[in-house]
C-alpha cells in the first residue's frame, strides 16, 4: 500500500505532517512511503533523513497524488490537489468540513474516502490519535508566552529592596485542553490566575492547577458526547459576560479559548468589556479563526482598542513547529497503526469501528457522515 505525504501548499504552515521517526515505523509495518522533496525544510529536516527511514523522495507531486492509496497531510486539499487524487484514495487530514462544503462535495464526486482528523471521537482508545488536543495543548502554552512577551509587566511577584512587585493577573476563559495548559503555564511563570469554564466538572481541574475558578450560575450546561462544551443560549451568554466583565477589568491578560466545533465561536468579551480593561492589558483570542471570542479581534492581526491590545493570530501551534510536528506525526502514526492489517499489509477502513464512523465523511461517492450530509443539503 502506497502512502504519499505532500508538502503543504500553505506558505504559513510551518509544521510537517510526518517525521522520519514515524516514517520508519510505517515502513516497518510494510507501507510503501513516499514524501515530497523538501517536506521537512521548515524544521530543518533534510530529504536524506526520510530516505534513511526507508521512504522514497517524490519530485512529481501530481503523479504521486494520483498513484497514492493513502494521502497524509495537515491541511485540507484544494483545487488541483483534489483533482489529482485517484478514485478510491483515502485522504487523511484536517478538513474543517462544516466550513468547506465544496471540498466535501468534490471528495464525494471523486470517490475519495475522506477522513477528517478533527472528527476523531474523544474516547479513551482514541486519545493517542487526537490531533486537536495535542495541537491545542501547544496553542495554550504559546498564548501565555506570547502574552508575557507583549506585556509591559512581569508575571511573577518579586520582593525587592525597592519594594514588592505584584504578580500579573491572568484570566483564562475556557478550561479545555488549551485553557488548562494556559493556566499551568501562567502559574509556572508566577502569575495569579483566575479561570472560567461553563462545565461544572472543570472547576476541580482549575483548582488542581493552582488557579481560582470564577463561579457563574448558568443553570443547565453540560458537554457533548465527544467532550466539547455545549453551545450556550443567548441568555446564558449574557449572564456569563456580565459576570466576567469585572474579572476582565482587573486582569492584565485575558486568554480566551472557547470554541464550538463546526460553529462560529461564541462572543464572550464584548467591546464594552474591553473598554473597561486597564490600558496596557491585552487579550489573546485563540478562537479568532472561527469568528473570535473577543468582539474586536481580527484574524491574523494585533489590534488596539483604547490602550488594550487584542491578539487574533491563527493556529499559535505553528509558532512552535518542532513539537507541533512531533505531536501531529505521532497522532497520525497511531491512527494508521491502530487500523493497520499487518498480514496484508494495508490500512483497514473498518466502517463498523466507532472511530472510523466518527471521522469518515465521504466514501464510495457518498457523503457518509449524517451531520455533514444534512448540512450540505
Overview of the structural elements:
With 377 residues, the protein is α/β, with parallel strands linked by helices. The protein folds into two domains: 2-119 and 321-368, NAD(P)-binding Rossmann-like Domain (Rossmann fold), CATH 3.40.50.720; 136-319, NAD(P)-binding Rossmann-like Domain (Rossmann fold), CATH 3.40.50. The protein has 13 helices and 19 strands. It has helices at residues 20-29, 47-52, 61-67, 80-83, 101-109, 131-150, 177-188, 202-208, 234-249, 271-275, 321-338, 354-359, 370-376; strands spanning 2-5, 32-36, 56-58, 70-72, 90-93, 113-116, 158-160, 163-165, 169-173, 192-196, 212-213, 253-256, 282-285, 302-305, 308-311, 340-341, 346-347, 360-363, 366-367. An eight-stranded mixed sheet has the order 3-2-1-4-5-6-18-19, with helices on both faces. A seven-stranded mixed sheet has the order 11-10-9-12-13-15-14, with helices on one face. Strand 2, helix 2 (47-52) and strand 3 form a beta-alpha-beta unit. It is globular and about 70 Å long. The relative contact order is 0.15.
